[in-house]
Amino acid sequence: MSTTRILDGGMSRELLRLGAELKQPEWSALALINSPDIVREVHKEFIAAGSEVITTNSYALVPFHIGEDRFQKEGAELIRLAGRLAREAADTVTDRKVLVAGSLPPIFGSYEPQNFQPWRVQDYLKVLVENLAPFVDVWLGETLSLIAEGEAVRKAVAVSGKPFWISFTLADDAAAIGGGEPKLRSGESVEAAAAWAVSSGATAFLFNCSKPEVMQAAVETTARVFRKADARIEIGVYANAFEGETGEAAANEGLHDTRDDLNDDTYSRYACSWADAGATIIGGCCGIGAAHIHRLRQTLSR
User: Per the database record, which ranges form the Hcy-binding domain (predicted)?
Assistant: First the structure.
């Protein structure tokens, strides 16, 4: 467990905690527009908590959140700002290397694989990649719901020459929690997604923005696929703390309630099970804050 790389946690609630305003439809993009200093401060808090990788606050910088008109007029500038703030925070660290991951979100909405438009996706990903590229060390396609979204990210970042990670969100309904075959929210199997990853060129394959209870099975399935293929790809997890069913609601259509039972100790125990199953990159997603990451770092370093 001592070799586990620690990610940051969810951005939105930490922004709110430090006084940023978040509202729909802009969501976390609003903090870049109105209070960029708070965005930088959240990055620094995660670093202080032990994060070795911080993620750019570019998740909501897509037309789905800021609108087509604003994306065309201000998108590139806001994306560059998100990259610069993360880079500035990472570069303040002198005793260790902190990587900046460039967040490449699902372009047409979280948890909504049915909205994927392959004929348009590269138009938007290109803007994100071009403007984040000067600031990031690795690409992170995250909260992807279907394999085609992962393939789109692979194509978009190829020109950059930088490594890329792909992170899928999992079905986390009662059937999945009860031990059903681990699947993406599209219904595609984790086994199929892991098989795609083997030939994709990705250096890490992760699962995020799903309940902690479904992550271990996904890691175990992925580890089996990778062992069989002799694939040297890292496996990662960063779960959310959402309460109740999330499969029928967009991940960021509002401020979901978070679980009272998922404190930093409980989350760290889940993290240990993921590490035991083969995960070497672990952090948190929505509702997992700096305090969780601090405890996670302490627990996994023992």
Answer: 1-300
Residue 17 CA to residue 19 CA, distance in Å, equals: 6
The predicted model scores a pTM of 0.95
Contacts of 155 (CB under 8 A, 6+ apart): 122
The pLDDT score that the predictor gives to residue 2 is 44
pLDDT 10s digits, 253-294: 555 678 989 999 999 999 999 999 999 999 999 999 999 999
CA atoms within a 13 Å half-sphere pointing along the CA-CB vector of 225: 21
**Token pair of 115 as six digits:** 């909205």
The vertex-123 CA angle with 169 and 168, nearest 5°, equals 10
Is 286 annotated in a binding site? The answer is: yes
209 in a known ligand binding site: yes
What backbone phi and psi angles, to 5 degrees, belong to 9? -115, -160
HSE-CB at 83 with a 13 A cutoff on CA atoms is 22
Residue 272 counted as an annotated binding residue: no
